[in-house]
Specification:
The complex is a heterodimer of chains A (75) and B (463). Chain A is built from 3 helices and 4 strands. With 75 residues, chain A is an alpha+beta fold. Helix content of chain B is 20%, strand content 31%. The radius of gyration of chain B is 23 Å and the shape is globular. The two termini of chain B are 39 Å apart. Classes of the chains: A alpha+beta (75), B alpha/beta (463).
């Protein structure tokens, strides 16, 4: 599962770090460190975290990932 | 493509080529499909593999938490594109609307988006740059090599250049309990981007975390052993340091070489474009079918006296990609200007550093709230009596307030919005070192006398 956080929007509310602690960690007081490719078992927590972000700064992949790599293979 | 009829036809079955398949290129492709473009879309990129995110490469990847191939960008929608990856573009022919590729192939287009970004500035001495243990950090492959070198437990890492990337890597080294020396030509870390006051704070932070920080020195030589492995670095003050890993963090070079003969307004600062992302040609005339987005774009901003600004910011790539895509498939009257106030972040030594606005567009700086010794504060930057930028250390929640001050040209110094007003809130000169790069590279000269025959010629110098 792929995820990216728009850290220029992120204000360090840490909602994601409570809801998906395997994926989102606070580094110091307010800096966010996240795993951009967490295990699929994290999907439910991830989606809760993305929904709860007050800044809506978390983007989770919208595609079925099985299709994406084939599309991107060099031709 | 001026009539609505032609535009509809173009949106339906036109051809768009996107040169540069990283963050800006991917986001633009998604936005084009979102805008209803159903024609053919070709993604051209010099790196193999899907588009990936770069900021984690100098952070999560180097700590060893995230594998190098774990930063592929999430997709917002299927872009139904033809991907031509692993081969760089080598030229752009605007007479026939073709992109030339290095392998001899060419791609025809009706409109093209240039988002080729920047590459790492290499160590200038080739024989030294190729020593084992000498790295730059820009691509996934770069980060992979450096991560392995850090995991092997080097005796000392030398970081050359204390900008954001260099400082972040120094921070990771300390987190991994690796001895690190940082060599910076300027008087302090981050000074070129944020000025002397913040530079002093950054220097304190590095030293407090055990970084051997050496400012005002130049690395004059990287010395290898008989096996071609880096073993020592020599400095301009005559000193040396033994190190088995060196990270060259001297900023980027914009990928515009392939456009040298394109007739576009190209230089070391990127490709000049209007605020709607349309490229200028050499004469400063705006083109209709060539668009630019991301690190390689250089675009005027009304808030900053319409000066051309080049930004290597993640958020800028994202916002500009959306603007460019919208304008590529809409008529003049419906076009959007790229007016977002620049925003940036860096995570280092456990501190969240963020900025809004253009700190280099300032003559004074003042700490407006919080405490500098606690590394929890906001500093506002002012130019001729108005607020032009702000930088926060562990105080990101306030930056939106400052963004509004910038957008409304609020008077500088601004009042403190919170009860934690610093005791000595006095503006000081912002004090940036001279832009050393301004004297380098291509330039443009105006030639001819008669206005009817006046034109612009690109003059290139060897770098």
């Amino acid at each position: 599962m792929r995820v990216v956080v728009d850290l220029s929007r992120c204000q360090g509310y840490a909602q994601c770090a409570f809801l998906a602690p395997e994926v989102f960690r606070m580094h110091g007081e307010e800096a966010l460190m996240y795993h951009p490719n967490p295990d699929d078992s994290q999907r439910e927590q991830m989606e809760r975290a993305a929904a709860a972000c007050p800044l809506q700064a978390i983007l989770v992949d919208q595609l079925n990932e099985r299709d994406a790599p084939a599309e991107a293979s060099p031709s | 493509m001026s009539s609505a009829h032609t535009l509809q036809g173009f949106k339906r079955d036109g051809r768009i080529a996107i040169v540069g398949a990283s963050l800006a290129g991917l986001r633009a492709a998604e936005a084009l499909r979102g805008e209803g473009f159903t024609g053919s879309l070709t993604m051209i990129g010099d790196e193999l593999g899907e588009p990936y995110d770069r900021p984690p490469l100098s952070k999560q990847v180097l700590t060893g938490w995230v594998p190098t191939d774990g930063t592929k960008l999430p997709r917002r929608r299927d872009i139904d594109a033809q991907w031509l990856l692993g081969v760089p573009a080598s030229g752009l022919d605007l007479a026939t609307n073709h992109v030339h590729l290095a392998d001899g192939n060419e791609v025809a287009f009706d409109r093209v988006l240039i988002s080729t970004g920047v590459r790492a500035r290499p160590w200038p001495v080739e024989a030294e740059a190729s020593l084992d243990g000498v790295f730059v950090v820009r691509t996934r492959g770069d980060a992979d090599g450096l991560q392995q070198a850090l995991a092997a437990g080097p005796s000392r890492v030398l970081i050359i250049g204390a900008g954001f990337t260099g400082s972040e890597i120094a921070s990771i080294c300390r987190e991994r309990d690796i001895s690190v020396t940082v060599a910076e030509l300027g008087p302090a870390p981050l000074v070129g981007a944020l000025g002397a006051m913040i530079g002093d704070v950054a220097a304190d932070m590095q030293r407090a975390h055990g970084v051997d920080l050496r400012c005002g020195v130049k690395v004059t030589q990287l010395e290898g052993d008989a096996q071609g492995r880096l073993c020592r670095a020599h400095f301009s003050d005559g000193s040396t340091v033994d190190a088995d890993v060196a990270v060259v963090a001297l900023g980027g070079i914009r990928n515009t070489d392939w456009l040298q003969d394109s007739g576009l307004a190209v230089g070391v600062w990127g490709i000049a474009c209007d605020s709607g992302c349309r490229a200028f040609d050499l004469n400063g005339l705006v083109t209709d079918d060539v668009f630019v987005a991301g690190d390689v774009a250089r675009c005027p901003h009304p808030v900053y006296e319409y000066r051309f600004i080049s930004l290597e910011h993640w958020a800028n790539a994202v916002e500009q990609a959306d603007i460019a895509a919208h304008n590529m498939v809409n008529a003049q009257a419906d076009r959007w200007p790229h007016l977002a106030i620049p925003a940036f972040w860096s995570i280092q030594f456990g501190v969240n550093i963020k900025s809004v606005g253009v700190p280099t567009f300032a003559d004074e700086v003042v700490v407006t709230q919080g405490s500098v010794p606690d590394h929890r504060f906001v500093a506002a930057y002012g130019y001729q009596g108005r607020v032009t930028a702000a930088v926060s250390f562990n105080n990101a929640k306030w930056l939106d307030h400052y963004r509004k001050l910038i957008e409304t040209a609020a008077p500088f110094p601004p009042p403190c919005p919170t009860p934690d007003q610093p005791v000595d809130a006095k503006p000081v000169p912002v004090d940036f070192p001279g832009p050393v790069l301004l004297s380098q590279g291509a330039t443009v000269v105006v030639t001819g006398h008669d206005p009817s025959e006046r034109h612009v010629t690109a003059v290139r110098t060897h770098r």
